[in-house]
Amino acid sequence: MTFLYFDPGLGAMIIQTIIAAVAGIILFSKNLMHKIKVFFGMAKPIEDDVFDDIEIKDSDVENNNSSER
Amino acid sequence: MNAKNAHSSSFRDPSGYVFIDNGDIKRTILPIYFKQYRALNDSGFYNTLFQNELLIPHKELSSSDEEIIIKAEKIPFITYPYEWSFNMYKEAALLTLKLQKFSLENGFSLKDASAFNITFYNGKAIFIDTLSFDFYKENTPWRAYKQFITHFFGPLVLAHYHGAQQLKLISNFIDGIPVKMISSMLPFKTKLSPTLYSNIHLLAKLEDKHNEDYEGESKEASLSKQGQLNIIKSLYDYIKKLDLKEQSEWGNYYNKTNYTDDAFIKKSDIINTWVNTIQPKSLIDVGGNDGTFVRKLNNQAKIALVCDIDNNAVDFNHKTMKLNKEQFMLPFVLDVLNPSAGIGLNNKERDSFLNRVKDFAPDVTFALAVIHHMSLSGNVPFSQSAKFFSSFSKYLIIEFPKRNDSWVQRLLNNKADFKSHFDFYSQMNFEVAYSKYFNIESKELIESSERVLYLLKAL
Fold it and tell me: Which residues of chain B are within 8 Å of residue A13 when distances are taken between CB atoms?
């Protein structure tokens, strides 16, 4: 079977397994480092940041943004 | 297929299309997307995103076997990725990842991750492509992953290493910056970063290899949901920490102006008096730096576009806007001497700045401390700048620094031998040229400065 048109993102699809593994290691080690730092009282204070966390809140009550309106 | 007058940017997605109906933004959803749309609606997915102000709200108008029509909330002025400052770009990238994570957790997945699916509205980045969500199939990789890298991650990393000007590249590559190009432009040391190596350099290599694979022999890829969440989370963390290295040329402009504090207050007093009589609902400040002057107005417009050529000034404005939770402010990057052109299919897919600002038709335009830069640095004759300003708004508040103003002197001295070519730069010539397009309603000298403020009304 020969395809005339090939999805240009194929490499990107395959590579995601590798990237996910790398990302998993980074996240795991960062988490571990953070726990160690917290244990030794070295954790940095949370900076004043304009960007939210990645979580989206499901409930309206929890949602500060809309209750401020 | 596009029975109605489809919007010039809406042709890529077979799920439906956007059309304009008497100024309203409406969307036709075609049967191919009915299942997804119903699921997104019934599960409350859309609603949660509306309440969190992450997706442009819409209402269903009609539903039949052939089409469903929804009406979306209208955004008064669309800004494009190549007009965003670094942190605006970051906000848009983070929003995309946030949406993908939320989608995955609810059984959906973003089928594309174009930077053009996002714009700024009410002081926040907002997703505007309602039909971008598809069902998630277990153990499939993210289809839009590469698009995310070429539209968001790549440009941001390039800007981190080479400056915010890199963000303009996407106006030439509206389908994303080629991964190979991103990879080749990054310094060697980025190969030592696991995140950058895997997401950019390795991706570029693999993409290259598989582009030659015309036989289609490669097996279908699979990836667990947790694996995909790991990618998203690590990209989110990485982007959130990314910053710009360069210092601003205008960043602390207000500290190095030739104004005395007194003149600065006088200037804003005069402007406030005029603005109070015009009572504008909308305004644009061309060369508005970090939005300082617009924030000094005591009669605040509902929406204020504040643009500047300097990415850092716009970035600073964006930060202030976020910290103050302002909804009226819309900062963006604009070079008056080269405003964004119409690009994409038929040169109409992404509209030019001039078309957008003409549609927006701000009640008043501010051009404060801009004319000497246009005339003396950009060599734009008064007649041309007058024509430009008169093309989109009724009132113009313009500041004219006289010849003996220190900034003007500095610009003139830069001309060296050609200084005499700029003899035209005088208050009288300015008034004559601008009178062809405007009526001079009022003019006032700003005390203890060499600057004059004009209130002009288009003829």
Answer: 141, 143, 145, 220-221
